[in-house]
Design a protein that fits this description.
The protein has about 750 residues and is of the alpha/beta class. About 35% of the residues lie in helices and about 20% in strands. The protein contains 25 helices and 28 strands. Strands 18, 23, 24, 25, 26, 27 and 28 form a seven-stranded antiparallel sheet that branches. A five-stranded parallel sheet has the order 2-1-5-6-7, sandwiched between helices. A five-stranded parallel sheet has the order 9-8-10-11-12, sandwiched between helices. The chain is flat. Keywords: ATP-binding, Nucleotide-binding.
Length: about 750
């Protein structure tokens, strides 16, 4: 699910939000919309800066460096396409070549310095673009495009060359698209289509072709940004820009990697604030895909679970195939907001209806049972022996006369129905033709979504090519799977953006008192002992057991009396990662003699294993609860990430965890818990009481605050197990591992 439920906050919810927002940190103002220039507690921007790309997409003047009109030369075809594009957008074209007096009849300048005016856009067709970039900087060009390959996609030498190019661009003040890009930005877009458009961003031009071809089906495209290696302009820049364009109804992306995860999230946040849907294919789900993407564009693909979590948090709809990208983006661009989230399946075959209803339910769509009054109304036109509860089976014949339209209107009139899905598995003229016309006409007179799945493999039938594709109101699909994927994304997008509250608006802007306490505990480049790691947790208000660190058997006995029997004893040292495997944990000790023996045994094992100790922990024993894990790691793209899941041995066996990318709020923390496969354990099973979910959410938000404030200084944190006690009793961190960054 992409959306979150926004409801009334409980007292615990308000407390959790206060922790996430840093309300304990003093006079800093949180909760207001972030403005350009606002920084979070780590000094990172909280608002996407939107680049002015108007003169890139509609320049007044264009220079083509390396222009050619010689037959058989690659640059000739490019120059010709650019000349045609310049004419369409009303721009002046200036060819540049040191030895040609003219190109395609246009006067040719021998160098950039000889251009007759400052140009908005320079297209660089030479093999070594670096000297040209420096010349364009002198000429104060606004934008440049570099097609040349051989940069970061080729390995270390290419990466170094790209860094030099990026540095030159940064010094120049111009903005660069590329290198390793193509002509997609200068394609011929149909100007006879109306309605909201799709804006397209791709890191492989060929992969954008299916979306570009949607124009042949009557779906408008407004822009295409082929970002290439993103030495300067990146996906996030175009995403922010497209989200501000009034004609853009949806943004479709093919992503192989991201230049900067934070910038992408800020751009996605801008789109979410404006309610503009973003649909993305993001490769790298597998090791092979990630490796191939890196060789293609030279960017990081990111750990896929983190990528999934990041996209989810900011409402980016991730799909797997280009066909899904086409269909989902087209639906989201053109459909009006839903009036209800109920889906009704309407067919002329009981088998078809049942099959599609099964698939829709499995996809997470809600198929409400139509009320008795509505079923009675439908049975005026549909035989009594056919089911009309949802799915609705009309038996076939009613679609051939006036009954067909009455059935469709009655379904769309139901207040619980927001989407009507009609699968037509194959053409059966004239009934299918009449059905299609009725659906199209009904769609023109309703504000609800009408979806038709035209299942014929031929696709040349007039009912499909002329009637369905000629309608701007019916969403037409060729497969049931793509239809349901798009409908699910459509409903989820509108749930998500209704009342959308940006996590960046609530991100802490000043350090908390906890941060100042934590600073004193950090040891750069070192792993903290369990005792020190728990002190770090205490600094952020995370509860740990009663415990004492001792260095003698006698002190251990005294500590056990103060802590209270039964106790747990554990070796504590900066380099101990797996105490249980080494036999360095003793549980359930109930007497002084057991404590003395345990102390001696633990220190003997430590000497034998050559483990350095700072002492032995004598801890309160906490037994009743659900073992969970909460941790912090650093992702190469998105920075600190927070993980929560089932803990103890289950974390390694089941790997049942969810990831959040800070900043995030309470709703996201609860969504993370809701997505766990073992969530039932937290709700209480086999007579066990439900766990204190509010306390677990509070810990997740406190750990998030720690990750945001400490940043790179906290390389890793692992609270395992975090024992979540029965409802109302809190949560206790029984063990912790912390590694400090350098």
């Amino acid at each position: 699910m992409l959306g979150s439920t926004h409801g009334t906050l409980t007292t615990d919810s308000r407390r959790a939000r206060a922790i996430a927002c840093g309300e304990r940190s003093g006079p800093a103002v949180h909760g207001r919309p972030a403005q350009v220039g606002d920084l979070d507690v780590s000094g990172r921007p909280l608002h996407a800066d939107v680049p002015d790309l108007d003169r890139f997409f509609r320049p007044r003047s264009i220079a083509v460096i390396g222009a050619s009109d010689a037959e058989g030369r690659p640059n000739t075809g490019i120059t010709r396409q650019l000349a045609d594009w310049a004419e369409r957008v009303g721009a002046r074209l200036y060819p540049v070549h040191p030895s040609r007096p003219s190109v395609f009849g246009l006067p040719c300048s021998p160098s950039v310095a000889d251009l007759p005016e400052q140009v908005d856009l320079a297209v660089v067709l030479v093999g070594d673009p670096l000297p040209v970039i420096e010349e364009l900087a002198e000429a104060k060009a606004r934008f440049a495009v570099v097609f040349a390959s051989g940069f970061a996609e080729t390995g270390p030498e290419g990466e170094a060359a790209q860094r030099r190019l990026a540095a030159a661009v940064e010094r120049s003040g111009l903005r660069l698209l590329g290198p390793n890009t193509n002509l997609n930005a200068f394609e011929r877009f149909r100007d006879d289509l109306e309605g909201p458009a799709i804006a397209l961003i791709t890191q492989s031009g060929h992969q954008g072709r299916p979306v570009f071809a949607l124009q042949q089906l009557g779906i408008r495209l407004s822009h295409w940004a082929p970002t290439g290696n993103e030495a300067d302009l990146e996906t996030a820049d175009f995403l922010s820009y497209f989200a501000e364009q009034p004609e853009v109804g949806a943004i479709a992306c093919y992503l192989e990697g991201l230049k900067d995860g934070r910038s992408f999230l800020l751009a996605a946040d801008r789109a979410a604030r404006r309610g503009v849907p973003v649909v993305a294919v993001k490769v790298g789900r597998t090791e092979t895909g990630a490796r191939t993407a890196a060789s293609h564009t030279g960017k990081l693909t990111g750990a896929d679970a983190v990528v999934d979590a990041a996209l989810l948090q900011y409402g980016v709809i991730r799909v797997d195939g280009l066909d899904e990208l086409q269909d989902t983006a087209a639906l989201l661009a053109r459909a009006r907001p839903p009036r209800a989230d109920g889906v009704v399946v309407y067919s002329i075959s009981g088998g078809t209806g049942a099959h599609v209803a099964d698939l829709a339910t499995e996809a997470g769509l809600r198929l409400p049972v139509l009320c008795e009054a509505k079923q009675a109304e439908l049975h005026q036109w549909i035989p009594e022996y056919l089911s009309v509860a949802n799915p609705v089976d009309n038996g076939g014949h009613p679609v051939g006369d006036r009954r067909g339209r009455k059935i469709i209107d009655a379904l769309l009139d139901d207040p619980e129905v927001g989407v009507l899905v009609c699968p037509i598995t194959g053409p059966f003229p004239p009934l299918s033709d009449r059905l299609v016309r009725d659906l199209v006409d009904a769609a023109e007179h309703t504000d609800k979504l009408v979806c038709v799945v035209w299942g014929s493999p031929v696709g040349t039938e007039p009912a499909y090519r002329e009637v369905l594709l000629g309608s701007s109101r019916v969403a037409t699909f060729r497969t049931v799977g793509n239809c349901l994927t798009a409908v699910r994304a459509y409903l989820a997008h509108h749930r998500f953006t209704t009342g959308y509250r940006s996590p960046f608006d609530e991100a802490p802007r000043t350090p908390s008192p906890s941060y100042r306490k934590a600073q004193a505990l950090m040891q750069p480049g070192q792993q903290l002992s369990e005792h020190a790691a728990k002190q770090l947790l205490r600094a952020y208000g995370i509860r740990v057991p009663r415990e004492q660190l001792v260095t003698s058997a006698a002190a251990a006995v005294r500590a056990a009396g103060l802590v209270g029997y039964p106790v747990v004893m554990k070796a504590s040292g900066a380099r101990i990662a797996h105490k249980t495997e080494l036999g360095l944990v003793k549980i359930g000790l109930t007497s002084a003699s057991q404590v003395r023996d345990a102390y001696r045994e633990l220190t003997d094992i430590a000497r034998y294993e050559d483990v350095s100790l700072d002492g032995v922990l004598v801890c309160q024993m906490v037994e009743q609860g659900v073992e969970t894990v909460v941790g912090v790691t650093h992702d190469d793209l998105f920075g600190p990430t927070v993980t929560v899941g089932l803990g103890g041995v289950l974390v390694e066996v089941l790997r049942d965890t969810a990831v959040g990318v800070p900043p995030f709020g309470e709703e996201r923390a609860r969504d993370m818990l809701a997505g766990l496969r073992g969530r039932a354990l937290l709700d209480g099973v086999r007579g066990r009481p439900p766990a204190d979910l509010d306390a677990l959410v509070e810990v997740v938000l406190r750990v998030q605050r720690m990750a945001l404030e400490l940043g790179d200084r906290l390389a890793e944190l692992d609270i395992n197990p975090l024992m979540v006690l029965p409802q109302g009793q809190g949560a206790v961190a029984l063990d912790a591992l912390a590694v400090c960054g350098r």
